[in-house]
Amino acid sequence: MGLRCPEPSATQLAGVLKVEQAETFSTAADLVAARGELLSSDHRHLAPAELRLAWLDLHESWLSAKAAETGITDTSGFAIVGVGGLGRRELLPYSDLDLLLLHDNMPDDVLGQVADQLWYPLWDANIRLDHSVRTVSGALRIANSDIMAALGMLEARHIAGEERLSTELIDGARRQWRSGIRSRISELVGMTYSRWQRCGRIAQRAEPDLKSGRGGLRDVQLLDALAFVQLIDRYGISQPDMPAGSLDSSYLTLLDVRTELHRVSGRERDQLLAQFADEISAALDIGDRFDLARLLSNAGRTISYHAETGLRTAENALQRRGLSALVRRPKRRPLHEGVVEYGREVVLAREAQPEHDPGLVLRVAAASAVNGIPIGAATLKRLADSAPQLPTPWPREALDDLLVVLSAGPTTVETIEALDRTGLWGRLLPEWGPIRDLPPRDIAHKWTVDRHLIETAVHAAPLATRVARPDLLALGALLHDIGKGRGTDHSVLGAELAVSICTRLGLSAEDTEMVSKLVRHHLLLPITATRSDLNDPATIEAVSDALGGDPQLLDVLRTLSEADSNATGPGVWSDWKALLIDDLVRRCRMVMAGEPLPRAEPTPPDYLALAADQQVHVEIRPSDSERIDAVMVAPDEPGLVSKAAAVLALNSLRVHSASVNVHPGGAITEFVVSPLFGPPPAPELLRQQFVGALNGDADVLDALEKRDSDVAGAASVRAGHVEAGVPVTRSTAPPRILWLDTAAPSQLVVEVRATDRTGLLALLARALEQAGADIVWAKVNTFGSTAADVFCVRAPTAPGSARAAIEHHLLAVLGTPADVVRDEPGGE
Predict the structure, then answer these.
(1) Domain residue spans in the chain?
(2) In this protein, which residues make up the domain named ACT (predicted)?
(3) Which of 622, 676, 693, 773 is the most exposed place for a label (fewest CB within 10 A)?
(4) Which residues pair with 633 in a beta bridge?
(5) Which CATH architecture has domain 10-183?
(6) In a 10 Å sphere around its CB, with 0-12 CB exposed, 13-18 middle and 19+ buried, how is residue 696 labelled?
(7) Structure confidence at residue 1 as a pLDDT band (50, 70, 90)
(8) Is this prediction's pTM over 0.70?
(9) Residues 25, 232 contacting (CB under 8 angstroms)
(10) With 0-12 CB in 10 A as exposed, 13-18 as middle and 19+ as buried, what is 584?
C-alpha cells in the first residue's frame, strides 16, 4: 500500500505505556489502564496519525508481552498474525482487533489452553475481537473460498511467535491471489458494486460512511489488492499532481477524520453523524462542519473515481491477457466523430487529434452519457493534457453535445463526474468552482450544491417533452443555483452569471434572456404557490409581470420547479405542492397573451426555381459551423418527405431542423444536418438514392428499420453483460403528441415531441402518410436529445377520425405510451 505510518519511537512508547519492563505489561488491567490514559485529555494534543501510531504500539506491546507469558516463542509452533487495521499499521481507537493464531498442527487441548490465555484477557478488557485459530493450510483454504478473507490476508503482518508460520501464510495467500485473480475478478467487482449500492456515496452526502461507502477507505484497500497483481498503476494514482486528485492524500483525509470520529464519539463508528461534525472539524483545524463536509466530498470523489476506473482497467487488462485475447479481441464501435467504444469504455478513435479539436471533449461526453458507457481513464487524461479551450462563442455542435449530456438521464451523473474529476468540466464551466462540493445550508437538501444541479438536470430529462424548449429547461436546471457559495442572493447573482455563461455557449440573445429569467425566478412559483393567496388577483398579476407575460417561460419554469424539488430530497415535491403550483400557472395563463400560431417558413426564391422544372434536385450547401443545408426537391407525391428523411438517415446525417413546403411545381424539403462520422456524402449519391426511393427501386424505409433493429439487438447483447452501477439504457421523457389550433378548418396541425434518434423524422412522416394525411408543410427542430416536430397535414376524413388514425400510426413509431394533448394553444 502507498500509505504507511512510520515506526514508533522509544520515547513515544515510554510516554504512552509508562512501564519500566515490557514483561510486566500483560494483564487485562494493564491494557485497560493504558488505553484509558491514551484517550484521556492529557493526550488530546496527539494528531490523528500520532494517536494511531501510539494505539498500534500499545496493542502490539501488550500482545508481545502476552505471547511471551503464554509460551508463544520463536520455536513454539505458534504465531500471532495481525490482519485488518492491525496488519496495515492503521489501528484506530475502538476498532476491532483482528488476530489470527497460527499453529503447526498442535493437539486440541494445547490449542484450547493457548487460545484461552490469549483471548480472555482481551475480552476482559472489553476489546472488540475478531479472532480465529488455524493451521497455515487451513487458513489458505479459507482464503481460497472467501474473497474477504483473501483480501485481509494480503495485508497480514507477523506480530509474535514463530515467524516461519506467518511467512508461509503471507507468501501463500499472495501466491493464491496472483494465480486466482482471473477467476475471482467478477466476484470482486460484483461484491464492490453491491457494497456501493448498500452503503451509498461518501461524496455529496450529509452523513457519509467513511469506511464502506463509495469512495471510502475500503476502496483504497481494493485498489491495493489490484495493484498487488499489477493490474493497475498504484504509484501513478497516488501522485499529488494527478488531475483527478491524489489517492493517498484523499485516503489520509478519510483516515484522520475516522480516527477523530472514534475519539470524539467514544465508540467504533464508520458513519459520520452530523452531531460530531463540529467537534471533529475543530480538532482537525479545518474550519466548521461545512468545511469538513466539503473536504470529505472532494476526498470521496477522488477515491471513487480511482476505484471505478481501477476496476475497469483491471477487467480490461485481464481480458487482454492469454489465449482469450487472441480469440476475442474487443471491437471498435463508432459512437461519434473521433469517438469509439472499445473494451466497454468510450475512447478516442485512432485518427482523433484532441490537441486540434476543441469539441472532442463534449463529443466524448455525449457518447458516454447516451450509451451509458464510462469514459476510459487514459482518454480523460489525454483530453485533460491536450484538449484546447472551446472558442467563444461555442460552435453550435458543442452546445448540442452539452445538451445531449444534460438530457441523458441517470448516466449524466457519472459522465459529468468523470469530466469534473479530471478538470475538464471546470474548463467548460469556470463558474462551477465556487459550488463544487459546497454543502447545503438547508437541511431539506440531500446533495451538495454541484450534485444538486446535476440531479435537477437528471430529473428534468423525463419532463423534456412537456415544454416547447427542452434545451432551455436543461440549461436552467444546470444553472439555477450557480450563484450559491458567494455570499449574496444566489438567484440574482445566478441570473447575471447565466447571461455570461449562455453568451459563451453561443445562445441567442432571446434564449440567453430566458435562461437568465429561469435562474432569477426559479423559486418564484413554489414560494408564491405555498405562501400567497392565489385568489388575490394582485398575486397572479405580480407573477405574470415578473415573467414578462411570457407563457413559454411560465411553462418551462413550472417544469423546472418540479425537477428542482425532486432533486432536493424526499418529500420536497408532493401532490399538494403540484396542485398549488398548477393552479397558480393556470391563473397566470389566463392573464397572459398567447404566442403566434405555427406557420410555414417562407421558401427562398432559388429553391422555387428548382421546383419549377418538375425534376429531382439534391443540393448540399455549407451552413454554420459543422452543419450543412441539404435541399431535396421533387414533384409532390405521397411518401416524398419520409423517403427524403430516410435517405439522409441511412447516410448517417443527423437532422437538426427542417422545413417542408409544397408548391405547384413540387415539394421542397430543406434540412439542416450534420454527419455523425466523417465528411458528408456527395450530392450525386444522395440524389441517386432519392430517385431510387421515389421510383420504388429501393425501399429506404425498410432498410432504415432493419438497421435500427440490428442496433437494438446489439444493444440488448451488450445489456446481457451486467455491469453494476452503469445503466445500459438512458432515461427518456415520455413522447408527447399535441394537437395545435389552426386557422384553416381543412388542415390539422400536430406536434410530436420525443427523444430524438436517427431516422425518427422519416418514420414519423411515413406514419402520417400511412394514416392518409398529406403533409402541407412541416417545421422540424432538435433541441439536444429532444425532437419537436410540427406537421400541418390535410386529411381525407373528418377531423375526429383523422386525428384517431394519425395518433394510432404515430404511437406505433414512438413505441411507448405517449401523452396526447388536444387543442393546445399555439406557442405553449
Answers:
(1) 10-183, 200-324, 338-428, 441-594, 606-824
(2) 629-705, 749-825
(3) 622
(4) 617, 668
(5) 2-Layer Sandwich (3.30)
(6) exposed
(7) very low
(8) yes
(9) no
(10) buried
